[in-house]
User: Which sequence fits this backbone?
């Protein structure tokens, strides 16, 4: 990690850096912190819309935003407006997306352990696609379809591709809880069983090989496996899931959504896939990560023999990724974004846990200290959506900025909200 000022490329598309402040979407981030408090998630609508638009143009109709990466009503509607379907993985996500006004015919339903109630609701609402994951689900489906009840489905398969990423977010290899193995014959058996079910229209297969993947080769391999595997079928859709990586820190670089789609299409063509088969994907992180910035206020600076700890007013409850995956982030001082960052600190949260570390070795300007506002960029994905109330810390508010104005899309949680569940 460098002591140079924060890289412009890690910030949202509309970010403008001055020596004494940063604007995103034309709005000063320090003003947002004053108005809405900290911690605060800020999303640049222009970045979100640009990435959705890019995905909608790069893949075929039916490409979906993976809502697990960041979900609220405003985000679901934005993805819809920009031409995407919305992928949900549980009944809870399905409910929120439908409440938000996304029509069921634009919803893709996932899940590795869908209850009968979840499947029944997806069928009753008429979701666009149900992605079937396992034999128990096929059995449940068999009890629900037929006699005038129908569903459009894909079968989720594991193509046997080992993606180069953290083992917790790898899913395409054989030893995984997701999908049916192609190599073992389970995937073929699942397809035969699905074809036996009256009321099920099977459109094709789906594979998701993992997350935060920087090389497109894994996706090309996955597409080749899917194309070969379905050569004798009359399917009209293949979906390569999500998983495109994003750069979180200086020195990382990731392919664009368009490059990802191009590599996938090339692999499909080279494998002889029929031109009429729709090629789909479900990007999450690559849509929302770079659009988001989290703002914190520094509360404590503590010097111990080995290092300096700088504690902010959030932590593992609003960003569990460093704890879960050892993920790296960068930080900058909102009042001095163009300054060099020679001060090396361990940026920690306020939770009662030694592991509550946001950045193991963060670089900040020499003067940054108690009372200052610091920001962590590229925090738009799997931050708010994985947020918890550990230590009964209320979840932050979320604000969208665009063309010089801000709108709160999720208000800050209160301790009263947390107390509501007491019986
Ligand atoms: C089935 C499926 N599709 C899409 C995604 C989104 O992945 P990403 O956010 O890495 O693009 C995931 C993430 O876990 C997934 O499991």
Assistant:
């Amino acid at each position: 990690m460098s002591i140079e000022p924060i890289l412009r490329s890690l910030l949202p598309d509309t970010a403008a850096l001055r020596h004494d402040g940063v604007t995103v979407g034309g709005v000063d981030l320090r003003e947002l912190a004053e108005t809405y408090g900290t911690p605060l998630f800020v999303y640049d609508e222009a970045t979100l819309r640009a990435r959705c638009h890019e995905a909608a143009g790069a893949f075929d109709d039916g490409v979906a935003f993976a809502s697990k990466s960041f979900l609220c009503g405003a985000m679901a509607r934005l993805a819809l407006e920009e031409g995407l379907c919305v992928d949900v993985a549980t009944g809870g996500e399905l409910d929120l997306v439908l409440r938000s006004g996304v029509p069921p015919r634009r919803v893709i339903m996932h899940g590795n352990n869908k209850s009968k109630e979840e499947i029944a609701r997806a069928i009753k609402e008429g979701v666009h696609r149900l992605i079937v994951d396992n034999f128990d689900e096929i059995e449940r489906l068999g009890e629900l379809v037929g006699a005038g009840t129908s569903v459009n489905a894909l079968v989720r398969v594991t193509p046997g591709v080992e993606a180069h990423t953290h083992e917790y977010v790898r899913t395409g290899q054989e030893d995984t809880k997701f999908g049916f193995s192609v190599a073992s014959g389970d995937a073929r058996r699942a397809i035969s069983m699905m074809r036996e079910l009256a009321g099920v229209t099977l459109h094709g297969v789906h594979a998701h090989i993992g997350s935060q993947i920087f090389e497109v080769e894994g996706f090309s391999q996955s597409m080749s496996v899917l194309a070969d595997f379905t050569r004798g079928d009359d399917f009209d859709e293949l979906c390569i899931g999500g998983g495109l990586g994003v750069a979180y820190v200086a020195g990382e670089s990731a392919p664009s959504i368009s490059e990802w789609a191009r590599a996938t299409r090339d692999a499909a063509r080279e494998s002889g896939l029929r031109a009429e088969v729709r090629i789909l994907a479900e990007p999450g992180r690559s849509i929302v990560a770079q659009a988001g910035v989290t703002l914190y206020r520094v509360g404590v600076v503590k010097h111990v023999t080995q290092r300096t700890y700088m504690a902010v007013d959030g932590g593992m409850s609003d960003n569990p990724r460093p704890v879960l995956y050892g993920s790296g982030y960068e930080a900058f001082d909102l009042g001095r974004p163009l300054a060099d960052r020679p001060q090396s600190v361990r940026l920690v949260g306020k939770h009662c846990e030694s592991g509550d570390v946001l950045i193991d070795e963060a670089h900040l300007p020499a003067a940054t200290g108690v009372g200052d506002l610091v920001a962590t960029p590229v925090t738009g994905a799997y931050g708010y959506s994985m947020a918890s109330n550990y230590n009964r810390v209320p979840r932050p508010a979320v604000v969208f900025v665009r063309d010089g104005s801000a709108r709160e899309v999720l208000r800050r949680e209160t301790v009263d909200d947390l107390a509501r569940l007491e019986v």
User: Anything to note?
Assistant: The pocket of pyridoxal-5'-phosphate is lined by residues 66, 68-69, 87, 110, 208, 211, 241-244, 282-286 (CB under 6 Å).
